[in-house]
Design a protein that fits this description.
Length: 94
């Protein structure tokens, strides 16, 4: 039976979210979907993850809470990085 390492799985999941965040600003359809359909759910998920993190810190079970609380900011940060890259690419093409 294959043993799946939890740390490896979390790292792979975080890298997948980061790569997806890098790709989104290059596709106009995904930008429209994110802005008009996912803005409120992503905001709610962010607030829920912050609440979960704070409660987990008080309950002394913060190890999984840090990972969950980092996913949405990781996605947003990768999009910001990608937006700067898109700007530089568009200037180079122009």
């Amino acid at each position: 039976m294959i043993q799946i390492d939890e740390k490896r799985t979390k790292t792979g999941f975080a890298i997948t979210i980061f790569i997806f965040g890098l790709i989104v600003p290059f596709n106009e359809t995904l930008i429209v979907v994110e802005v008009f359909y996912l803005l409120i759910p992503l905001s709610i998920l962010f607030l829920a993850s912050l609440i979960y993190l704070v409660t987990a810190l008080f309950l002394k079970d913060s190890k999984p809470a840090f990972f969950i609380a980092c996913l949405i900011p990781l996605f947003i940060a990768s999009q910001v990085i990608s937006i700067f890259a898109v700007t530089k690419i568009q200037r180079a093409r122009g």
